[in-house]
Amino acid sequence: MGYIMSQESFDAMLDELSSTYRIWAPVNKVGEGRHTDTDVVRYDFVSWVKEIEWEKKSDYAFKEILTPLSQTLFFFTEDEVKEANRDVKDVLVFLRSCDMHALKRQDDIYLHNGKERDYFYDQMRQHVHFVLMGCSHSYQECFCVDMGSNQTKDGYVFSFDIIDGNIHSDVKDETFNNVFKKYAGQEKDVTPQYVTENDVHVTIPNEIPLSIYKSDMWDEYKTRCIGCGRCNFVCPTCTCYTMQDIYYTDNGKVGERRRVCASCMVDGYTNVAGGGQYRRDQGERMRFKVLHKVYDHRQRFGYDMCVGCGRCTNVCPEYISMAAAINKLNKTVEELKNE
């Protein structure tokens, strides 16, 4: 069922929904960008349509609502452990198709990658629902079409498009039909907008020989990449984290355990006891990241991890392009086949 309504009516509907849900959407933060007097688009809670950044691609992904940068899991004393309190109010998250596909990758890792579901992620996931934001055009550095993440047909409660000043919504969850009927001016079949063509293209190899691990194609990243980890923190599919124990007392028996987002591109991430280090330079770390995004995840779940949002390329201070790295990988694989 689809609906068309004015922005004023949609605002009134959001106001009613806010009694049940928190609304989490991309917001343009004026003057809060990486450089002086630049803006940044990142997620925050909103109340009205005009607060939602509709025209620009968000610089940061939606995932912090499910995997906060720092999350206290539990508190401990010498005698007991207490799970940290959580806000149990449901959340509506506005995101684009590539991020809807990224959500599936997040669920893969936290819920379906072992015998047990991640308890803390699972608890939060049950309270988060998704609103699909349509894409009327491609954005800089996007290659979602080649990654198959340009269109989403399910998984969202309703869609959100602004066309000729009005809100067009395709309602998938029947529980929202009543509130839409209350505020919508028109019922009409609605198909969320989606991108059919990108300026950036990638070719992904189907099979990758083991010799790629010794290839010199990774050498350029030894000097180009500075190991800042920005690519991981903006990526909607990166899931790596580390654990930190924070002690309140000198005896180390009272404190809290936190799960903190981590980066496979940062020095020290692969350090192990005894002084071992699995990936010592940025070339090896770039190799791990690229192969994980376009090969390893596919071997485990049947499709690639990267969704082609292009955020890692946009944020990289050294202008390292993920699309270029994937195409370089494909070219190198073809050369190795012909040797």
UniProtKB/TrEMBL annotation:
Pfam families under this entry?
A: Fer4_22
Read off the InterPro entries from this record. 4Fe4S_Fe-S-bd, 4Fe4S_Fe_S_CS, Helical_ferredxn, Sulphite_reductase_A
Q: Name one GO molecular function term.
A: iron-sulfur cluster binding
Give the highest taxon in the source lineage.
Answer: Bacteria
Which ranges carry the 4Fe-4S ferredoxin-type domain?
Answer: 214-246, 297-325
| Keyword Metal-binding (UniProt) | yes
Matching entries from PROSITE patterns are given as:
4FE4S_FER_1, 4FE4S_FER_2
- Cross-referenced SUPFAM superfamilies: alpha-helical ferredoxin (SSF46548)
Keywords in alphabetical order: Iron, Iron-sulfur, Metal-binding
List the PANTHER family: ANAEROBIC SULFITE REDUCTASE SUBUNIT A
Q: What is this protein called?
A: Anaerobic sulfite reductase subunit AsrA
Q: What is the organism field in this record?
A: Absicoccus porci
